[in-house]
Amino acid sequence: MDWRALQDVVAVAETGSLSAASRRLNVSQPTVGRRIENLEDKLGAVLFTRTAQGLLLTELGENIIESAKRMQEEAFSIERIATGANQQLQGTVRLSLIEDLGIFWLPKKLAEFHKQFPQLSVEVNIDNKNVNLLRREADIAVRLARPGRPDLVCRKAGHFRMALYASREYLAENGTPKRFSDLKNHFLVGFDPAMGFSKQLIKFESLFNSINIRHRSNSHMEMIEATRSGIGCSVLSCLVADSHDDLVRLWPRQFSHNQDIWLVTHAEIHKNARIRAMFDFLIGALEEDADSFTGA
To answer: Parallel, antiparallel, or unpaired for β 213-217 and 188-191?
Structure first.
């Protein structure tokens, strides 16, 4: 039995479509479909039915999916163990970061990394959602909350501050709020709920009239540009917003949303030479730029 076909089955079952599964697995959609069809031929049964909601597991598919998932986890475990034993400073390191860090900050640091480690390459995954380190979706993730799993190596590397900003153009047109209660009469550029709200952000949004939340986004960088264009006020990272002269930080002493920066990798691959090299480099780079992250 072709193990890759079982991996395809798991991916399709979890994503609901061949196209989404192919993106997760980084292979073409026809390849995923062909391997599943070949597996169905060998089993003599159909594993998925097509519905308006996407591909759904048949009864047989439901019966085998948990076994396939266990096989997948064991395969990932073997891969992590093998990776952890590799002590050569060659190959690729995969990083996962939020937009603010991955777009605005990281590229400025990677030039120095490549000078120190010319035989290493870097793959960057920009995603405001957490990737799955157990499935090797990334080797190292920079996160704004500490994961709770005991099999992850976590290192706190500083603080990440967000604050309330508005453009000079917006304030000239709508006035500068003097008190928090004044925000009821102002517009907000908010986060897409799918990104996940902290209690602080939920409390902050309650300061605005709900009908005045006239723009939402799942992209931090888009929120920056929307705020700069004068659509409304927004909670933005000090790292990026402070670099724009046309943005004004409101109540810099009274209002801020603070999160710890965590560098995370899996314990089984932490001793790998290339991963450890990147891990240690990022620790130093984050500590070096600590003032930029806190808006000091």
So the answer is: parallel
Query: Whole-prediction pTM value?
Result: 0.68
Task: Report d(CA 10, CA 266) in Å as an integer.
Answer: 22
CB-based contacts of 74: which residues, under 8 Å, 6+ apart? none
- 212: burial class by Cβ within 10 Å (0-12, 13-18, 19+)? middle
CB-count burial class (<10 Å; 0-12, 13-18, 19+) for 162? buried
Question: Taking a C-beta distance cutoff of 8 angstroms, is the pair 242, 164 a contact?
Answer: no
Q: What is the DSSP letter of 27?
A: S
Which contacts of 29-33 are long-range, i.e. CB under 8 A and separated by 24 or more positions? 32/8
User: Which DSSP helix (H) or strand (E) runs through 107?
Assistant: helix 106-116
Q: Residues 6 or more apart from 132 whose CB is under 8 A from it?
A: none
Phi, psi angle pair for 77, to nearest 5°: -60, -45
Q: Tens digit of pLDDT for each residue in 240-252?
A: 999 999 999 999 8
Q: Is the pLDDT of residue 210 over 70?
A: yes
Q: Residue 85's CB: how many other CB atoms inside 10 A?
A: 12
Which residue intervals of 2-87 are DSSP H helices? Answer: 3-15, 18-25, 29-43, 59-84
In this structure, what token pair is assigned to residue 17?
Answer: 């479509």
